[in-house]
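Good morning C.,

I know you're traveling, so I'll keep this short. The sequence:
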Amino acid sequence: MLAVFDKSVAKSPEGLQSPQSNSVSALKDGFLAQHFSSVHPGSVTVNLGTSGLLAYSLHKQNPLLPRLFAVVDDIFCLFQGHLENVANLKQQYGLNKTATEVTIIIEAYRTLRDRGPYPAAQVVRDFQGKFAFILYDSSANTAFIAADADGNVPFAWGTDSDGNLVLSDEAEIVTKSCGNSFAPFPKGFFFTTSGGLSSFEHPLNEVRPVPRVGSSGQVYGANFKVDAETKKESTGMPRVGSAANWSNNI
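The tokens, ready to paste straight into the viewer:
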């Protein structure tokens, strides 16, 4: 799976940018979408206009970590993996028996956006299993991205020459446009458009970049770790109709 988000949707963390990047534009002339389709014949690309793109292939899947894609009310979601508590989540979000992991993620996000009964970190923490997902809400022009605490699903991210955020379950796809400005997506973290990167296991702690240097001295995009010594101000998620929309305050 692949996502490229314009920097207006998802601003790349500064630590992801390598001074030795040799990156190119992922979106210009459809560069990365074309590369993805050449690597994965028969893949599907969803053009998000000026906001970026999503692409996925259902071929050559790991049967234990399948890829799913769904669109519900202008919310697009790519999901890879398997949730172990699907039955409980269906009940929690009032979904029918045919609901799959990807529709659960969408409904969880929509509940978060519209009613906000729990903090975002709690919502992601409730997903038990092996997963990585990329969600884009076209009505709010926001992204919501997460990976499980053990990093069971291969998941990488990077920043291209235009500062756009690139994500894929294949590191080679990310490095094609991001060069050295890439890193594994941090385990147990989630990313939102306005809130940036946070740990869902330690949401009150700040996050700090840890530089990555290769064996021959090349500098890559940083890994991100929880700073156990530094707490951040807790930000709630106001409900719709409150002073500010959640997507500007998460």
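Safe travels,
E.
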